[in-house]
Amino acid sequence: MTAVNMEHSKTVRGYLKQQLAEYINFEDPVEAQRTLLSGFTDNPGILRPIEGISYYKISSPTRSQAQASEEYVRTRFLEPNDFICGINVLLGDLSWNPDRTDAFEAAMQELGILLGFCSQRPDKLYKNGGPDNLWAVGGLKYFLIECKSGVLDYKKPISKEYCNQLLGAISWFHRTYSNSCIAVPISIHPCGKFDNTASPSEAMRVIDDSCLKKIKAAVIGFSKAVIAGGDGFQQVEKFGEALQHFGLTETQFIAKYTISAR
Q1: Whether the predicted model's global pTM rises above the 0.90 cut
Q2: Is residue 71 within a helix (H) or strand (E), and if so which, with residue range?
Q3: Residue 247: phi, psi to the nearest 5?
C-alpha cells in the first residue's frame, strides 16, 4: 500500500493497485474488487472489475494550469531527453491512421494532461455514451472531443453519423454533469466541413488537418521552452509563459486551434 500511495503516475499506480487487489482477494474478495475498481479508474489498461463501473466525474485541477503542467512533466519524465522522446511519441500518435485510432485517443488524453488539464476517455473507460476524450479545462468548462483519426479520405466531409455521435456526446454531458457546466463540442477530423446531410450545432468546433499540424508545432515549441538549458526543467512561471505564448491556455486554445462548424 505504501508503494501505491507514493506513486505519482496514474498508470503505474493503477497497475500497483491491481497487484494489491490480487493479494487482498485471498482474504476479502469484495475489498479486492473495490481496490481493482480504483486501479481501473487510474489505468484502464489493467483488469476490469467484475461488477459494473460507475462513472467518475472529472473536474478542473485545484492548481493553476501552469502548476498542473509543470508537476506532470517533473513526475512523468526524469530528464529533458526523456521528455523530448515522450513528446515525439505523443505527436507521432496524433496522426491520421485507421489502424491506430486507439493510440490517437490515448495521445489526446495525455496531451490534455500535459497542458495542465484534467483529461479522461469516457467511451473507452465506461462505454456509457460519453465522448472519446473529455478535458476539464478550468472552472466549469469542458472540451468534449470526438476523434475521427481513422478517416481514409481527407477531403470527405464530416458525415451525418459522425455529427450525430458528437450530438449524442453532448446529450450525455448534459445528463451527467451539472447544468452550470459548459461543454465545447469538438470533432477531430481531417476535413473541416460537415456533410450537407449533417446537422451540427452552432457550438461545434473542428480540429481539421491544418489545426492538428498547428497544435503539434505549438507542443514542440512549448516542450523546448520549458527545458532549462538541457539540465532540467524550468520553474512553473516559465511553464505559464510558454502555455500563453503558444496559445495553449484554455482561453486561447479554441480560437487558435479549432474552426467553427461549416
Answers
A1: no
A2: helix 65-76
A3: 70, 35
Cell 515549441 belongs to which residue? 221
Kindly report the length of the chain.
262
Higher pLDDT, 232 or 27: 232
Is the separation of the CB atoms in 145 and 108 below 8 Å?
Answer: yes
Per residue in 183-241, pLDDT tens?
999 999 999 999 999 999 999 999 999 999 999 999 999 999 999 876 799 999 999 99
- Beta bridge partner(s), residue 259: 206
- Please tell me the least confidently modeled range out of 58-62, 110-114, 178-182: 58-62
Q: Which three cell numbers stand for residue 213?
A: 499540424
Closest C-alpha to 248, from 225, 207, 224, 218: 218
Mean pLDDT of 45-68: 83
Nearest to 219 by CA among 248, 258, 256: 248
Among candidate residues 115, 137, 136, the one with its CA nearest the CA of residue 240: 115
CA dist 212 and 184 (Å) reads 17
Alpha-carbon separation of residue 113 from 3, 120, 161, 212 (angstroms): 23, 9, 29, 17
The position carrying cell 529533458 is: 80
| The amino acid at 152 | L
Residue type, 129: G
Alpha carbon separation from 47 to 3, 11, 133 (Å, rounded): 19, 13, 21
| Percentage with pLDDT > 90 across the chain | 69
**Which amino acid would we find at residue 225?**
A
Dist. CA 118–CA 65, nearest whole Å:
10
